[in-house]
Amino acid sequence: MTNLINDPRITAIGLFTEVHSGLTNRFAAQFDEHHVSAVEFEVLMRLARSPGRQLRMTDLASQTSLSTSGVTRVVDRMERSGLLTRSACPTDRRSSYAVITDAGLARLDETLPGHLALIDEFFTGLLDADRLGDLLSTLRVIRDAANPGAMVGTTDTADSAE
């Protein structure tokens, strides 16, 4: 049993969890300053970086940690705030798109500088270019195995949704 406790796989997932938790806590305070939740920020980023600045609702659910009904609730709330709008799918009446609005893009514009400063200070800025490139490649391999739907609805598999 003692050998399993010290298994490097446990260390790897523990470090990953600690990094995620630490960054999430730092981001939360900065998001609050801009009146956006972490989930809303993720939705805005996914839409802003998608072709036509829109995604089918089901694709948005696949790319986030939300269920289909969870995405519907978030999109409803964000639509009431004017950050997004819905658009009917011209080829499938059962589907609709979430589309970022100018107000949503403006919210991103005001939030991103502080967010990027935190990312630089506590994450990517700690790595030289080679290590960052290796990390991005490694994270894509892990992401693709753990969340194969993360790139649904995108056209550029290397950078669209990260």
UniProtKB/TrEMBL annotation:
GO annotation, biological process: response to stress
Signal peptide: none
Pfam families: MarR
Keyword set, alphabetical order: DNA-binding
Domain of life: Bacteria
A Gene Ontology molecular function term of the record: DNA-binding transcription factor activity
Domain HTH marR-type: 1-144
InterPro entries per record: HTH_MarR-typ, MarR/SlyA-like, WH-like_DNA-bd_sf, WH_DNA-bd_sf
PANTHER family per record: MARR FAMILY REGULATORY PROTEIN, TRANSCRIPTIONAL REGULATOR, MARR FAMILY
Protein name: DNA-binding MarR family transcriptional regulator
Species name: Catenuloplanes atrovinosus
Lineage of the species this protein comes from: Bacteria, Bacillati, Actinomycetota, Actinomycetes, Micromonosporales
